[in-house]
Design a protein that fits this description.
By secondary structure, this protein is of the alpha+beta class. About 40% of the residues lie in helices and about 20% in strands. It folds into 3 domains: about 110 residues, no CATH class; about 150 residues, no CATH class; about 150 residues, Bromo adjacent homology (BAH) domain (SH3 type barrels), CATH 2.30.30.490. The chain is globular. The protein starts with a helix and ends in an 8-residue tail after the last strand. The protein binds zinc ion (2 copies). One zinc ion binds next to loops.
Length: about 475
């Protein structure tokens, strides 16, 4: 690798590819080995700052600190060399990382925190189990588990959520669905308001860090304020789980600035690739060679496809799956508003589904939709971007594509559940971008052109209302 990074990779065509190695990611034990640092039970175990853990109840705890003394690249290099020469522990450094000669961004800037391990598999899981074990009565645990088990998700979610009692089999994807979508609306019912509002700080911060710059340049600053408040007050609600992984969340603002949103940084893809080889290897111990070989095969197959593009049916955006439903009075009236012709039955064509950029929206007249509920969308009309409803059907009229939507109007703000909480004001703006409380029944219908549909939603149905939350980003490996 060191040779490649100096010489580059020459090819037969004469181009010499230069390799730039941007960063290192992985779970905490892997990173500390790769960079020769003390493990997370040690006193100076943070790679980014000089926080000193506190030893309590046989565990190392990391309490909130307002100002972090960060390790600079120069100090990092100096202390790790000193540790290498003296063979001692210098502020957590045990030596010079063997990777430091090949990475093009200096340590510790090149370290990318893997939110899949740190936030999902560790912190989210710990907190959910803590609440389940300490705050809920046995009957409530059963109720909550049933809610997690039965909550519908769009059909393209390969995994949904998992009941807490089955957490030993829980996958990172399931924890992600819980953290970003299902946890807050469902667990809120069982928690004291202040505790639920405190948890909402974490969920909102993670939604901001996970997605695109929803509130422009302030995105990571707002997320960090929420995270800091959550961390600062963590001991008010949880005992003895202020672990190193919680401390690492203090660095998410810098990580977002340097490397982008968390949805681009998770190691879901790499883990499943390596997991696939670990499960399917046939006797060989040379996993590296096997991975390279399969990469080459994959590369060849993908490249060959390009030669035959004309043979592959192109799936274009638009309406499909036509339906021969009768044109009802509402559509007739709609037609007269949209079109001048006098033959609505010829003019209007009804469709069940709509494809846009590989995302397929269903409608209520699509009968094979099962329980996936991907007909519930966020859409805009007349400058209002936060409208929600269920798509009854799609139709074309006068060469334009329309959706007929049963609008569910807003009942109240999601943060109204936390009106009495001291966190209400800090949650007010960001949390209401992600969760909406709607009336249970629809009272009006909207006709919009399909380009006004902005996102798919996950819907939580309660006895007197719906809570909906738009998807965080259109694609992340699961
Ligand atoms: Zn730190
Ligand atoms: Zn017409």
């Amino acid at each position: 690798m060191a040779i490649f990074s100096i010489l580059g990779i020459p090819t037969r065509s004469g181009i010499n590819y230069k390799i730039l190695i941007y960063g290192i990611t992985g779970d905490c034990p892997a990173i500390k080995l790769a960079i020769k640092h003390v493990n997370h039970q040690g006193y100076w175990c943070c790679w980014f700052c000089y926080i000193r853990g506190v030893h309590i109840h046989h565990k190392r705890q990391y309490y909130f600190k307002k100002e972090l003394a960060l390790r600079s690249a120069a100090e990092y290099a100096l202390y790790s060399h000193e540790a290498e020469e003296t063979k001692t522990n210098i502020y957590g450094h045990l030596g010079v990382s063997p990777l430091s000669v090949i990475i093009d961004v200096p340590l510790p800037r090149c370290l990318v925190i893997d939110y899949m391990h740190v936030s999902l598999l560790r912190h989210t899981r710990t907190v959910i189990q803590y609440i389940y074990g300490n705050f809920l009565k046995p009957k409530q645990r059963e109720e909550l588990d049933e809610l997690f088990r039965n909550q519908p998700f769009p059909h393209f979610f390969n995994r949904k959520m998992r009941p807490v009692k089955e957490f030993s089999y829980c996958k990172a994807t399931e924890l992600r669905n819980m953290l970003l979508y299902g946890l807050l609306p469902l667990i809120r019912l069982f928690l004291p308001i202040e505790c639920a509002a405190h948890l909402a700080l974490y969920v909102t911060a993670m939604r901001l860090f996970h997605g695109p710059r929803t509130i422009g340049n302030d995105t990571e600053t707002v997320a960090n304020e929420l995270m800091a408040m959550y961390y600062k007050h963590h001991t008010l609600f949880y005992e003895n789980i202020q672990n190193f992984v919680l401390h690492l969340h203090s660095n998410f603002m810098d990580q977002y600035r340097l490397h982008g949103s968390l949805s681009n940084l998770g190691t879901f893809g790499q883990e499943s690739l390596i997991g696939h080889f670990a499960n399917n290897r046939n006797g060989t111990r040379n996993l590296g060679q096997l991975i390279i070989n399969n990469y080459n095969v994959d590369f060849t197959i993908v490249n060959q496809l390009h030669h035959h593009l004309s043979d592959v049916p192109v799936k274009s955006n638009g309406l499909f799956d036509s339906h021969d439903a009768l044109i009802n009075n509402f559509l007739l009236k709609t037609h007269n508003d949209l079109c001048f012709c006098d033959n609505a039955n010829q003019c209007i064509r009804i469709y069940c589904r709509h494809r846009i950029d590989a995302m397929i929206y269903h409608s209520l007249i699509y009968h094979r939709r099962g329980s996936s509920k991907i007909y519930f969308v966020q859409y805009s009309k007349d400058n209002d971007k936060n409208l929600f409803g269920a798509i009854e059907l799609f139709f074309t009229c006068n060469k334009k594509n329309y959706a007929l939507i049963h609008n569910h109007s807003s009942k109240h703000l999601f943060t109204d559940y936390f009106l009495s909480s001291k966190y209400h004001s800090i949650l007010l703006k960001p949390l209401n971008m992600y969760f909406y409380v709607l009336n249970l029944t629809s009272t009006c219908r909207d006709v919009i052109t399909v380009d006004n549909i902005s996102n798919m939603c996950i819907v939580f149905t309660f006895c007197d209302s719906l809570v909906v939350t738009p998807l965080s980003c259109s694609y992340e490996h699961d």
